[in-house]
């Protein structure tokens, strides 16, 4: 028995499905156990090395075990410990770093995960507007709290029929009640957008969305649709919450908002903010954020581990590097090169394909046109993609075998052997075309 199988056999005795959280379960025989990581490479417990484009679902922006970040964390914790439940000057310093990169942010509060940041932003929006309803966009993902655990059931939907997909919870244990205040609209659909604001004009607290859907293959809002959403929010007194958990400090120094020139009232950040250390934040307009606090009528926000020194040490170092070096330029160049080589491979194999999103986190869709929304994704050849991905994994290229997860690029990918990658992609697509 190889080491991975032995580890899984043992893990199955102690954790549901043998994993620490659901998304790591790739089956009893295919779940990956990692022995070491460095740069853009992972080595599994059987000693097989992969060039990793999954990057832990996106947080790694520089590379694994980046010495500049790790050293900054060590310095913080050897001086002050991991947390004290009190403030440090680092809190303000990191906020100022974020503000320097994201000019629409006036004030910030910290969190420990994307889920927590979204919870904070939504509560703040409700506290500020005095309204309860929220709307999200089909195909987006905003963390694991009950209200965000509803989706359009595209897996069981017939895209050729006239029946709308059902709205279902992500899984058991999500109370029906948690969707009572939720509407789901479709990306880039102007009609549904107008209808939402007609129906919910006085009750809508916020629209929450990923402008580039990092959980639906980087399918992106058109600038015109995002601007219309911005205008309607302003007109109707609802807040625009842009979830930049995946795009923030990745697709540009100022995130997706810098690309679009459209600014949210509240924004959530996590992932690239700490190069893999668990740190998150939500922030926005001062007038909105000032509703947060322990004053009468204030919005509650807190948490034992908030702004701990591991998190802030990592964020401080990561943001400094992103602000002062050309790391994001390198990522953009490397991502474009990888997209180009994959394009050549698909063309040579006569596969209709389209890339979505920016080079730092691009989606691949086996379909003639870039999908405009999540339902279009369902029309792509997801099965061929899944086979292609598994063939790549077999050959030492790690990625999520689901085309809804983009390819993430980090600074360390500049050392990738591009000719090797093109060769692996060629062999993988040929094998995927052959296999049933
Ligand atoms: C856009 C977006 N928002 C929120 C979350 C939740 O973040 P976390 O897993 O840190 O709770 C994720 C996670 O992938 C995400 O992609």
Overall 3D shape:
globular
Question: In the CATH scheme, what's the topology name of the largest domain?
Answer: Aspartate Aminotransferase, domain 2
Distance between the termini: 28 Å
What level of helicity do the residues show? Answer: 25-40%
Low-confidence parts lasting 5 or more residues at pLDDT below 50? none
Descriptive report:
With 436 residues, the protein is of the alpha/beta class. The chain has 2 domains: 32-61 and 326-434, Aspartate Aminotransferase, domain 1 (Alpha-Beta Complex), CATH 3.90.1150.10; 67-324, Type I PLP-dependent aspartate aminotransferase-like (Major domain) (Aspartate Aminotransferase, domain 2). The protein is 37% helix and 16% strand. The strands form 5 sheets. It has a 7-stranded mixed beta sheet with strand order 4-14-13-12-9-5-8, sandwiched between helices. A 4-stranded mixed beta sheet has the order 1-2-3-17. A 3-stranded antiparallel beta sheet has the order 15-16-18, with no helix packed on it. Helix 5 (190-199) runs parallel beside helix 6 (223-236) and helix 10 (327-348) runs parallel beside helix 13. The two termini are 28 Å apart. The mean pLDDT is 97. The site of pyridoxal-5'-phosphate has 15 residues, from helix 4.
What topology emerges from the helices and strands here?
Blueprint: H1 3-14, E1 34-38, E2 41-44, E3 49-52, H2 67-80, H3 89-101, E4 107-111, H4 114-129, E5 133-137, E6 150-152, E7 167-169, E8 182-185, H5 190-199, E9 204-209, E10 212-213, E11 219-220, H6 223-236, E12 239-243, H7 255-260, E13 266-269, E14 280-284, H8 286-289, H9 309-324, H10 327-348, E15 354-356, E16 361-365, H11 374-378, H12 382-394, E17 397-398, E18 407-408, H13 418-434
Parallel strand pairs: 3-17, 5-8, 5-9, 9-12, 12-13
Antiparallel strand pairs: 1-2, 2-3, 4-14, 6-7, 10-11, 13-14, 15-16, 16-18
The structure holds pyridoxal-5'-phosphate.
Residues 57, 113-115, 118, 141-143, 210, 214-215, 243, 245-246, 270 line the site of pyridoxal-5'-phosphate.
